[in-house]
Design goal:
The protein has about 400 residues and is of the alpha+beta class. It is built from 14 helices and 20 strands. Strands 4-5-6-7-8-11 form a 6-stranded mixed β-sheet, sandwiched between helices. A hairpin with a 6-residue loop joins strand 15 and strand 16 (about 305-310).
């Protein structure tokens, strides 16, 4: 179980421990936590849990479902829905019930279509806005209505939700949580436990809130099947299965990438990443940001050998800067130059060093072309790793 000490304020070389506010009082209770989280959605580290749920907007409180009233509903411009449930941990009953409760809300929403979801949200919001899209458009004016509705409908039908249990001092039994998760495997949710300790500023009236992610549901092992040419289901090779993501954000990234490179090239990319992982301990790590990307990083998370975009373009974030920090900037430059020669591109260094890359005709090159030289690419990565490891000698 994670333990956290109280934060301190250091002023004129003197340290003062902040006093924790009890959330069991009349002033600070579950309703107060709901208000705090609803009016300050950035307080909740949704993007840390699932990048594709970032930029969420508060839609309504106390959404009526067949299983009860969901405390908080958020949505972002891409139609990804977050459900928040606020609980104070005064008794064991609350601890036992809250996980099942929020999963029941998710199952209820997964049975709704867009019209039902919009109707219930607007009813709970009690606002003058006549459409859910109207609320979103005020903050994201470039969003297309048809695309937004399609995205919300897709996420509802697939049960793609971020579920946040928010409390003052979570002590949930993780075994119970795992049991709930396995019984609800038809939903593609991510469940996060967030603690919201609140402290008093000793020199003023302000309150200091320090959100903490205490736990996130781990990937659930699943056997992946595909339909062969003869129509018979066949099990996907185990090394490929490891690259088939279980988080919502990863699944969404691969869906978007597949639209741009095709099914066959996507499967080839997954095999290539699996090969890099087994040979060179390369990690495929989803990047954050408004657009998702997949970074191919060294095992120690230091070097980024490629950043594959949803479009299929391959960018390179900071490898020159990182090799400079490690002791030899030229190693990163040589990596990009050798890769440029392999794909018949050009080492592009006319921007800030962080964005130095490989381009052709001033445009990034698609990952499909890199797959055509994947053996050479593997050699260049191996050579770069070896040169970096020798810096410590």
């Amino acid at each position: 179980m994670k333990q956290h000490s109280s934060p301190i304020i250091i002023k004129r070389e003197k340290a003062q421990v902040l006093e924790k506010v009890s959330l069991n009082s009349t002033s600070y209770n579950e309703s107060w936590i709901q208000d705090l989280c609803f009016t300050n959605p950035t307080l909740l580290p949704a993007e840390e849990l699932e990048p594709t749920f970032g930029g969420m907007l508060p839609i309504c409180r106390e959404l009526s479902t067949p299983s009860g009233y969901a405390d908080l509903i958020y949505i972002n411009e891409y139609g990804f829905i977050t459900i928040g449930e606020c609980k104070l941990w005064r008794n064991s009953e609350a601890r036992r019930k809250v996980v099942g409760q929020i999963l029941d809300y998710a199952k209820d929403l997964a049975k709704w279509d867009y019209s039902k979801f919009e109707e219930e949200c607007l009813k709970a919001a009690k606002c003058s806005e006549k459409s859910l899209f109207g609320i979103i458009q005020k903050f994201y004016p470039d969003v297309e209505e048809a695309a937004f509705i399609d995205n919300v409908q897709r996420n509802l039908s697939k049960g793609r939700f971020l579920l946040l249990i928010i409390g003052d001092g979570i002590r949930e039994n993780m075994e119970d949580m795992v049991n709930y998760i396995h019984r609800n495997g038809n939903l593609n949710f991510t469940l996060g436990l967030i603690e919201l300790p609140v402290f008093k500023n000793p020199e003023g009236e302000e309150l200091i809130v320090t959100p903490r992610i205490l736990a996130k549901t781990k990937e659930i092992e699943r056997v992946i099947y595909r339909i062969a040419d003869d129509g018979v289901p066949e099990k996907v090779n185990s090394d490929i299965q490891e690259l088939v993501s279980q988080t919502i954000s990863d699944v969404v990234f691969f869906e978007r990438l597949q639209k741009n490179v095709g099914v066959d090239k996507l499967e080839e990319l997954k095999r290539f990443i699996a090969s890099l992982s087994s040979q060179l301990n390369i990690i495929a790590k989803l990047g954050r940001g408004k657009r998702l990307s997949l970074n191919l990083k060294s095992g120690d998370d230091e070097l980024n050998f490629a950043s594959i975009q949803e479009s299929g373009e391959v960018w390179f974030y900071g490898i020159v800067n990182k090799t400079e920090v490690l002791g030899n900037k030229q190693i990163g430059i040589n990596y990009l130059k050798e890769l440029a020669d392999a794909v018949k591109g050009r080492f592009f260094d006319s921007t800030k060093e962080w964005n130095w890359s490989v381009k052709r005709n001033n445009a990034y090159i698609n990952v499909v072309e890199y797959l055509a030289i994947q053996e050479k690419w593997t050699e260049i990565i191996a050579k770069t790793l070896n040169e970096v490891s020798r810096l410590d000698e």
